[in-house]
Design a protein that fits this description.
This protein is α/β, with parallel strands linked by helices and 315 residues long. It is built from 13 helices and twelve strands. Strands 1, 6, 7, 8, 9, 10, 11 and 12 form an eight-stranded mixed beta sheet that branches. Strand 2 and strand 3 form a beta hairpin.
Length: 315
């Protein structure tokens, strides 16, 4: 299937910067991260239009020669994702007015959302994700990558690496991988919640834990109890793993499975949600801070060679 792609790469109020600049503009192997991502999208036959949302003037300088639509960023991640999606609709681009007719006509339109800080994204991983997205059955699909795959990019004796945070389940430990397929018009009432949760995903920051708890409380009766239970189990198991009590962490997270999380997401969002696993890993290696960026810059060619190797997975 052909699908439009929206790269959400704004640097507004809640966005993290590295070395005081937009992460999408950081130079990796001689070119901006954003350019790496667009090249991969362009090399993927399954991708149709590419829309990039961020600081328009800076992005024009960096990738203005590429066949992409660059949209000026709004105030928040949610607004950026929404505006990027709307700009994939010809009737909206012509008038810049969202009408009931447009909503009804494109009610079932789905797009690929991805972040602007994943320089190790590969066409192989992108094709794998898209091929697993059954949009006849689901309305929102989030990608994850296993801890076993991510260990290939972790620290080793004599080699730097990045140790990435994961969430624990009975099925294994995983990390969200920055790839999402969604029908935004079916998620109008919940898109802000989805993007807030994504924005607050850095759970090592205590303030984000409180922000997530506040969002859970706002879910209202009938959804708070199970959601809070799962969230607390995830937090406790992650904390136990951090101090080396992995066996106890696995016991704590035993009630949580990927299927139960899928069901919970479907209930919260009032859509058919799914979670799918990719087996490459590059989309999960986002740039979070200066240290990780320096490590990624040093290891980029080695890691890219691993990713391009067809045997690089455990599936």
């Amino acid at each position: 299937m052909k699908v439009d792609a929206v790269i959400v790469a704004g640097d507004g109020r809640a966005a993290r910067k590295v070395f005081k600049q937009n992460k999408a503009l950081l130079d990796v192997a001689g070119k901006p991260i954003l350019r790496h991502i667009i090249e991969v999208l362009k090399a993927c036959d399954e991708i149709s239009r590419v829309v990039v949302v961020g600081p328009k003037d800076k992005f024009l300088d960096a990738v203005g020669d590429m066949d992409v639509m660059i949209v000026e960023q709004k105030r928040s991640l949610a607004e950026n994702a929404w505006e990027g999606f709307l700009m994939t609709i010809p009737e909206y681009r012509d008038t810049m007015v969202l009408t009931d007719e447009i909503i009804q006509q494109y009610r079932n339109k789905h797009v690929l959302f991805l972040s602007g800080d994943i320089p190790l994204l590969s066409a192989r991983e992108l094709k794998q994700f898209i091929s697993l997205c059954d949009m006849d059955e689901y309305d929102y699909i989030a990608g994850i990558t296993s801890e076993e795959i991510l260990k290939l990019f972790g620290p080793r004796k004599g080699r730097p690496g990045i140790k990435m945070a994961t969430f624990h389940t009975r099925d294994g430990n995983f990390r969200q991988n920055n790839l999402h397929m969604a029908r935004p018009f079916l998620l109008i009432s919940q898109i802000d919640l989805i993007l807030k949760v994504y924005e607050y995903r850095y759970q090592r920051e205590i303030i984000n834990i409180f922000r997530i708890l506040a969002e859970i409380i706002r879910l209202g009766r009938g959804k708070v109890g199970k959601t809070l239970f799962f969230y607390l189990l995830l937090q406790i198991s992650a904390g136990l793993s951090t101090i080396g009590l992995d066996s106890l962490a696995q016991m704590v997270c035993y009630p949580i499975t990927i299927e139960k999380m899928r069901g919970l997401f479907s209930s919260i969002l009032s859509v058919r949600a799914q979670i799918i696993e990719t087996t490459v890993g590059g989309a999960a290696l986002d740039v979070d801070n200066e240290k990780d960026f320096m490590t990624l810059s040093v290891m980029y060619k080695d890691w890219l060679n691993q990713i391009l190797n067809e045997n690089h997975h455990f599936a």
